[in-house]
């Protein structure tokens, strides 16, 4: 199937590539279907592209790339909603935000995806994690991508 995006133009995706977020994402509650796209210029960054809105694509990264001991403790309701049988099934991503000076990573509300079932949710961690973890001293490729 083809989808049109403002960032990537028209792209071909398979139905199996679509991720379903039952509650959407914080601030994007009406966006329930997403596709995860690789960044052609930087393997550390991916883009979560909304299927409902061509102009919404969020840069995402693995939080462990920047915080090696980062862990997410899921509530039992989140585990049930994601249909997780083991923690190995959970793929965790953080949304990157940018202002004029810095890039930040949201560690407080990561995206948790069950890749086997193609379902995800954005969880608010019970642990005290920052919403804006500054990503300092980044390679220029990452800054350009995000």
TrEMBL record:
Please verify whether the record's keywords include Nuclease. no
Complex and partners: Interacts with translational regulator CsrA and flagellin(s).
Native organism is Mariniblastus fucicola
The Gene Ontology biological process terms listed for this entry are: bacterial-type flagellum assembly; regulation of translation
Protein location: Cytoplasm
Question: A Pfam family for this UniProt protein?
Answer: FliW
Keywords, comma-separated and alphabetical: Bacterial flagellum biogenesis, Cell projection, Chaperone, Cilium, Cytoplasm, Flagellum, Translation regulation
Gene name in the database record: fliW
PANTHER family the record matches: FLAGELLAR ASSEMBLY FACTOR FLIW
Q: Which family does it belong to?
A: Belongs to the FliW family.
Q: Which InterPro entries match?
A: Flagellar_assembly_factor_FliW (IPR003775), Flagellar_assmbl_FliW_dom_sf (IPR024046)
Which protein are we looking at? Flagellar assembly factor FliW
Signal peptide (residue range): none
Q: Can you name a GO cellular component term?
A: cytoplasm
Is Cytoplasm there in the keyword field?
yes
| Role description | Acts as an anti-CsrA protein, binds CsrA and prevents it from repressing translation of its target genes, one of which is flagellin. Binds to flagellin and participates in the assembly of the flagellum.
């Amino acid at each position: 199937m083809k989808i049109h995006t403002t960032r990537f133009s028209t792209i071909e995706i398979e139905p199996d590539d679509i991720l379903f977020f039952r509650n959407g994402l914080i601030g994007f509650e009406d966006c329930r279907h997403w596709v995860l796209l690789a960044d052609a210029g930087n393997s550390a960054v991916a883009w979560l592209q909304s299927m409902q809105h061509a102009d919404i694509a969020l840069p995402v990264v693995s939080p462990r790339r920047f915080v090696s001991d980062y862990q997410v403790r899921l509530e039992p309701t989140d585990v049930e909603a994601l249909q997780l049988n083991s923690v190995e099934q959970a793929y965790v991503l953080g949304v990157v935000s940018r202002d004029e000076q810095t890039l930040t990573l949201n560690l407080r509300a990561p995206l948790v995806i069950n890749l086997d079932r193609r379902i995800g949710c954005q969880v608010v961690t019970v642990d005290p994690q920052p919403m804006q973890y500054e990503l300092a001293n980044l390679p220029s490729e990452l800054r350009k991508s995000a």
